[in-house]
Write a structure and sequence with these properties.
The chain folds into three domains: about 150 residues, Rossmann fold (3-Layer(aba) Sandwich), CATH 3.40.50; about 140 residues, Alpha-Beta Complex (Argininosuccinate synthetase, chain A, domain 2), CATH 3.90.1260; about 30 residues, no CATH class. It is about 40% helix and about 20% strand.
Length: about 400
């Protein structure tokens, strides 16, 4: 196993460009850069040229959009997953796939070293490293932000000047907060957002329109589900990635999917996060509408009880753990019953369920109707109340 090469998770920005050079100068390693295209649409056209200009011996860019949605996003959504009641885990769910590819490329390149640019207080270093070690217990991870004495973007700029390194971007061009984007969401944190008394600047939000500027006319859509996953929009069969992209476009136009929250990081530290998750917000509402028709009361209670633990496992970087896999198997088994279609109205930040139908429907209009006999008789109801009173007394 070669110790001369390292696979670096590379964005092309200031941080990872400095890390690329630092790995060569301080660690005496040859650097292979790895960039995951997960539908974010912001990969620089000159990324390869930029990386090689900083000394990379090889540049790898992967389009992971379909794998990301099919094998990570949709399985997570089968559990209607929300972390601390609000966060749709757009960053957390992307990290296990990136960790997997870093380990796979390291194996292909005959090295045991990978590196990332996650900062010292964030969640991502935990997610990358837990994921990588779960897949290869012998992997060695270099985390420069825990090793070097630089602590700010100003320090990085000074490093560039001192080492005569071309700066990939001027500080004036950088937003006053950090961002992460993939096909599921955009996140914003740090910088000006650390003051909780100050609303996020309106020009921060890149895609989801404000309520005021959202489309003035409502739009009705239909989402078809099969065995727990969406498969078509308005009767148009689409790939998983296309479905999420279409729902994103719809959500952005109608002002759906912005949140501004304070969350508990994996270490317990509180952190403010602002998120745009338009398609995911629509999908969550559609799934719950579909499940209300297809799942029994006990199914719904069981799945809802599993969700907080499942969400925490993903948030904490434990996607590859046996516990998450066991929960996934239970969730998937229940979700197999979720097939049918739901109609939704999108309007000014709202996702409103209009109607639903399913071949697996548990709804019986005759039994449910107050106008017709059937279902529970008066005697049945009296017995049900009596039985539950006895349970209450115990």
């Amino acid at each position: 196993m070669s110790a001369k090469k390292v696979v670096l998770a590379y964005s092309g920005g200031l941080d990872t460009s400095v890390i690329l050079k630092w790995l060569q100068e301080e660690k005496n390693l040859e650097v292979i850069t790895y960039t995951a295209d997960m539908g974010q649409g912001d990969i620089p056209e000159d990324l390869e040229e930029r990386a090689k200009g900083f000394g990379a011996i090889k540049v790898i860019v992967d389009d992971l959009s379909d794998e990301f949605v099919s094998n990570y996003v949709f399985p997570m959504f089968r559990c209607n997953t929300l972390y601390e009641g609000e966060y749709l885990l757009g960053t957390a769910i992307a990290r296990p796939l990136i960790a997997k590819r870093l380990v796979e490329i390291a194996n292909q390149e005959d090295t045991n070293f990978i590196a990332h640019g996650a900062t010292g207080k964030g969640n991502d270093q935990i997610r990358f490293e837990m994921g990588a070690h779960a897949l290869n217990s012998e992997i060695q991870v270099i985390a420069p932000w825990r090793e070097w004495d630089m602590s700010s973007r100003t320090d990085l700029m000074n490093y560039c000047k001192e080492n005569q390194i071309p700066m990939p971007a001027s500080k004036a061009e950088e937003p006053p907060f950090s961002m992460d984007e993939n096909l599921l969401h955009i996140s914003y944190e740090g910088g000006v957002l650390e003051d909780l008394s100050t609303p996020p600047p309106e020009d921060m939000w890149l895609k989801v329109k404000s309520i005021e500027k959202a489309n003035s006319e409502p739009e009705t859509i239909n989402i078809k589900f099969q065995n727990g996953d969406p498969v078509a929009i308005n009767d148009n069969a689409l790939t998983d990635a296309e479905i999420l992209k279409n729902l994103n476009d719809l959500g952005c136009a109608h002002g759906i999917g912005r949140i501004d929250i304070v969350e508990s990081r994996a270490t317990g530290m509180k952190s403010r996060g602002c998120y745009e998750t338009p398609g995911g917000t629509i999908l969550l509402k559609a799934r719950r509408a579909m499940e209300s028709l297809c799942l029994t009361r006990d199914n719904i209670i069981e799945k809802d009880s599993l969700m907080p633990t499942y969400a925490k496992l993903i948030y904490d970087g434990l996607w590859w753990s046996n516990k998450r896999i066991d929960l996934q198997n239970k969730i998937d088994s229940i979700s197999e019953k979720v097939s049918g279609s739901v109609s939704l109205k999108l309007y000014k930040g709202n996702v409103i369920s209009l109607g639903k139908e399913s071949q697996n429907s548990l709804y019986d209009e005759n039994k449910a109707s107050f106008e017709a006999k059937g279902g529970f008789s008066n005697e049945d109801m009296a017995e049900h109340i009596k039985t539950n009173i006895l349970k209450f007394d115990k």
